[in-house]
Amino acid sequence: MKTILGVDPGLNTTGYGVINFAAGKVRLLEAGVVRSRAGGVAQKVKEIYDGIREVLDAFHPEVLAMEQLYTHYDRPTTAILMGHARGCVCLAAAQAGIEVVSYGATKVKKILTGSGRATKDQMQRAIRLELGLSTYPDPPDVADALAVALCHRYHGRIGM
Fold it and tell me: Which overall architecture, per CATH, does domain 2-155 show?
């Protein structure tokens, strides 16, 4: 049985989703968010780190998958803040001995929907169908985390 932790890092809300698979079947183990409270960047980073470490310690995934960092040229501050969140997620994984892999957003969307330009709603529908959920994953950060975990599974970078 292989276990993948997908993470959608954000400084205020970090989505995560843990899936595993055996005998060709994918199963959702847990999904949720790590929320950081009001405070400075250092406090937020610590809360993200602690939350992700808790998930890593509970499920012992073989790999942690997340989207590659990107930003629009007119929003460099967003990239810097996202870098803080990604950095503490990577540190938590490294300390736990977990491999970290990244995928571009268009690759994740294309693998799950067939279109690299899929909307958030299309992605939520795809995740709901793939995992046989009764409702859409909510908030969208959870759907994004599950999407990148499934992308890693379907991309073939972990044993089938």
Answer: 2-Layer Sandwich (3.30)
